[in-house]
Amino acid sequence: MKSSVILSLIALLFFPHLLLSSPLDPIEPSQVLPRPLILQFTSSLEEPDDSTLNQLRCDSWRFAAEANNLAPWRVVPAECGTYVKEYVTGQAYRFDLEMAARESLIYARTVEIKGDGMDAWIFDIDETLLSNLPYYASHGYGSEIFNSQEFDAWVEQAIAPAIESSLILYEEVRALGFKIIFLTGRSEGHMNVTIENLKRAGFLHWDKLILRGANDRGKTATSYKSGKRREIEEEGYRIHGNSGDQWSDLLGYPVSSRSFKLPNPMYFIP
Amino acid sequence: MKSSVILSLIALLFFPHLLLSSPLDPIEPSQVLPRPLILQFTSSLEEPDDSTLNQLRCDSWRFAAEANNLAPWRVVPAECGTYVKEYVTGQAYRFDLEMAARESLIYARTVEIKGDGMDAWIFDIDETLLSNLPYYASHGYGSEIFNSQEFDAWVEQAIAPAIESSLILYEEVRALGFKIIFLTGRSEGHMNVTIENLKRAGFLHWDKLILRGANDRGKTATSYKSGKRREIEEEGYRIHGNSGDQWSDLLGYPVSSRSFKLPNPMYFIP
């Protein structure tokens, strides 16, 4: 056996990948791993312009936010600031809010209301019943870091307007016979301004208004709100519907029979 | 007292609303309910054209589907057929898939992998790892009623291509040391064709492949899949991540530490 052949065999023993990586050796078809079968997009050859590309990226970011795929985030990505502003001040946000309300009502009408007054629907408040859009309009629509002092000053004015589709839903759900429970991340110190604001915006009657108390400090919204849902169920209520703009309004045990996620690309609460 | 005044007082006693409803009486400002404060959209005066309106409606429908707000649905609404086709064959679907994979990987890299081989990531198969888009392309992209016989014939060809971003994610997650569990709604009768298809699409290694067995018949996907997650946890696995295109892949007890919802506007599985 020639020494070059022996050396080649020794080399192959320790570095078998050389066999495949040498550009000189012919490779038998059976040695090549077949290229995996991968989905081809029919339009993948078109190169979108920068503006379209940014729109697509921000659409994807918004989808990921609304599907709860994102890691906790503090501000809207810089490149999506204008996108979010145009979305929330435009038709798209209103359409999305109306669709959420419409689907909620379709479901609410299918629920059998027992005569015992324990059929409940939970509503979050901010960005669910009341809109803080006037505040966010002067704070970059979510592209600035949240300033709790400035936001508190806004809350204390008690002038947040109603989201119209939610006001209509609230009235319809109440008329169907549901008990109305407002469950908010606002603190008990804001009880009076919250009541004042709710009434001013047309939310005149409710069965419970639950705010964060001293014992709820430091809890995530998911933990605080699911804990309150547990208490509500322990009182005997059946929670049929739950409306909120944050997944932390809706997730955690126990969950409502149906949950409705209202759109909100401006901020994230864990 | 004049008789007309007495009559008025009697009338008022029985019909107090007359006081407010008479168009002749002047009404004090304090008697008028204030108009509730309602959010005004800055662009609400612009009337969108029919094409923009349909786009907005279908965007809202897709958002509602992806946020799990819709009642169970069997077909894409007729007016959104073209919209869904353009979405899934275009850049937007690919971008959304890539964003879901990217966020999954960001999270996966933060997980501490213990040396005991019990850190798991669950993947659904259809529309998560493998794409049935070639099938749906010849079946109206979700606008036709699902035909299980025709779909089974497609599945048995074992030629569904990989979703590229999911293939990359799968490889990265495996390289990080996660145990890979495939949990699919496909039936055990399709085990061999599923294995053949997975390998052809580049998914070469996994730790478990769970298909619907005889005992799982008639269960919803939510019930079947959460039941399997319970069994997986009872075996000692820690389920850190769960990727699926249906909420029924992700919801129900126990839930994964993080869940990732891939886009799918073509069909709904309860």
From TrEMBL, chains A, B:
What keywords is this UniProt entry annotated with?
Glycoprotein, Signal
Which InterPro entries does the record cross-reference, listed alphabetically?
Answer: Acid_phosphat_B-like, Acid_phosphatase_pln, APS1/VSP, HAD-like_sf, HAD_sf
Q: Gene3D superfamilies this protein is in?
A: HAD superfamily/HAD-like
Q: Provide an example Pfam family for this protein.
A: Acid_phosphat_B
UniProt similarity note: Belongs to the APS1/VSP family.
Q: Which GO terms describe its molecular function?
A: acid phosphatase activity
Full protein name? Acid phosphatase 1-like protein
Renumbered to this chain, the signal peptide range is 1-21
SUPFAM superfamilies (UniProt xref): HAD-like
